[in-house]
Write a structure and sequence with these properties.
The radius of gyration is 19 Å and the shape is globular. The longest helix has 22 residues. It contains two helices and 17 strands. The N terminus is likely disordered.
């Protein structure tokens, strides 16, 4: 079963109640150095980075397709980073450079920006493959679980250089927006979450066991 872009073995429909706590069980990933981890929340269902020429994913110029956005519905109450798949445009001039950031908007694609990541600058490289880029917010941003937000890959300055990867229909909780219009059946390749102090192994086991136990009890109580 795929929930919020994460994969796990299905044990029946009653485990759907775990959708809001799955990030705590499966989204933990070592990050930045000893002592902290990335806690992934929302992500596309396709975990692999889009591959140029694979026949189904595409890389679109960020600047010429602005506003370039993906909506999502968080399960966590904060967001600290966003990862997207980028690739250098094959027709870019060797002198080209571009600065990008991630902007966060609530509710709709035209709502005011409530937070922006630190900007990242790119200079031309003769490089074919795609790669994952992490955009970090200066401080974790408080958000409301269950509410829709929009992530905008924002062109801040420079020339046409960077393209962002999109994949077909792999995030059912959101919409992919280019040139201000929804592109049905497509999604920006993205992952978002927060960075937290690394929990101990025992703490993770206790938390996971408690969550599974509570969900199982709920399933039994709702059974006819």
């Amino acid at each position: 079963m795929n929930i919020h872009g994460l994969h796990f073995t299905t044990w029946g429909a009653r485990w759907g109640a775990l959708a809001l706590v799955v990030p705590f069980l499966l989204g933990v990933w070592p990050a930045r150095g000893q002592g902290v981890v990335k806690l992934y929340d929302q992500a596309v269902a396709c975990p692999d980075i889009p591959v140029p020429g694979d026949g189904h994913s595409h890389f679109l110029l960020v600047s010429t397709n602005a506003p370039f956005m993906q909506s999502f519905v968080p399960a966590l109450s904060q967001i600290g980073f966003v990862e997207v798949a980028l690739r250098y445009w094959g027709l870019a001039k060797p002198s080209a450079s571009e600065t990008l950031a991630i902007s966060l908007r609530p509710d709709s694609s035209i709502s005011p920006i409530i937070a922006s990541s630190l900007p990242l600058s790119f200079t031309y490289e003769s490089r074919y493959e795609a790669f994952v880029v992490e955009f970090v917010f200066p401080d974790p941003v408080n958000i409301t679980p269950g509410q829709k937000y929009f992530l905008e890959v924002a062109h801040l300055s420079g020339q046409d250089l960077m393209t962002a990867g999109e994949v077909p229909g792999s995030y059912p909780l959101g919409e992919f927006v280019i040139l201000g219009r929804v592109a049905p059946g497509h999604a920006l390749w993205f992952r978002e979450g927060v960075v937290i102090p690394e929990p101990g192994t025992v703490g993770l086991l206790v938390l996971g066991t408690a969550l599974l136990f509570c969900s199982a009890r709920r399933g039994r109580s709702e059974a006819p």
